[in-house]
């Protein structure tokens, strides 16, 4: 069976009153041989309830030195009323961010159904649509979005920044005219990591949870230049915060 057959996509409506619920028919599991498997495999139903405490309670402020409040401010600056969030994890950043227009048209996209379920339940007040897809393959999304965010997902995708080019290409395709593409990614070992942060990066790369050993701000800047007419990149601690426009 091909990867295209194994990695299906689906779009589902989530009701406001939704408690944890079945999201349509089950999507066939991503095979371990697929390059995208390792970076998303950790997001299990056991791990996700601990995600906020580990990532936003400790890793972000102390290892990467880019706290949750800075990520939320980045979202507040670039969110639109028609937004696509890619790599949703627990949905914490969107939960704390402020949309410019109520109610927003919100779509959540992730390869991992556990993340989609967790984030969609948390954000049920916005009646989000969920879309399960591989960020490195055709997103197969209808319409276009005024803002698209890839936050803390690029450093989980396999290979170097140029190897992750399909993610940028797909985002550019899904972006509406005058729309904004933005996000954040943890840079590799050449960034100004503290000792514990560097050890965590090394361990996560060996485990396959991260794949950012070659990720630099310069490589990210070059990729944004390739696909967008203007962009801004700022390094906070060891996290690259970026925004770009295609018009």
SSE arrangement:
Layout (H helix, E strand, L loop, with lengths): L2 H4 L3 E4 L23 H5 L6 H16 L4 H11 L3 E5 L5 H5 L8 E6 L2 H10 L6 E4 L12 E7 L13 H10 E12 L8 H13 L9 H11 L2 E7 L2 E7 L2
Parallel strand pairs: 2-3, 2-5, 3-4, 5-6
Antiparallel strand pairs: 1-4, 6-8, 7-8
Structural commentary:
This protein is of the alpha/beta class and 247 residues long. The protein has one domain (3-16, 32-245): Vaccinia Virus protein VP39 (Rossmann fold, 3-Layer(aba) Sandwich), CATH 3.40.50.150. Helices cover 34% and strands 21% of the residues. It is built from nine helices and eight strands. The protein has helices at residues 3-6, 37-41, 48-63, 68-78, 92-96, 113-122, 165-174, 195-207, 217-227, and strands at residues 10-13, 82-86, 105-110, 129-132, 145-151, 175-186, 230-236, 239-245. Strands 1-4-3-2-5-6-8-7 form an eight-stranded mixed sheet, with helices on both faces. A hairpin with a 2-residue loop joins strand 7 (230-236) and strand 8 (239-245). The radius of gyration is 17 Å and the shape is globular. The N and C termini lie far apart (40 Å). Mean pLDDT is 87; it is low at 1-28.
* Shape descriptor: globular
Provide the CATH topology. Answer: Rossmann fold
CATH superfamily: Vaccinia Virus protein VP39
**What's the architecture, going by CATH?**
3-Layer(aba) Sandwich
Structural class: alpha/beta
Query: Which blocks of ≥5 consecutive residues have pLDDT under 50?
Result: 1-28
What is the name of the CATH class? Alpha Beta
The assembly state of the depicted protein chains is single chain
Largest sheet: 8 strands, mixed
Number of domains: 1
Order of helices and strands: HEHHHEHEHEEHEHHEE
Separation of the first and last Cα atoms: 40 Å
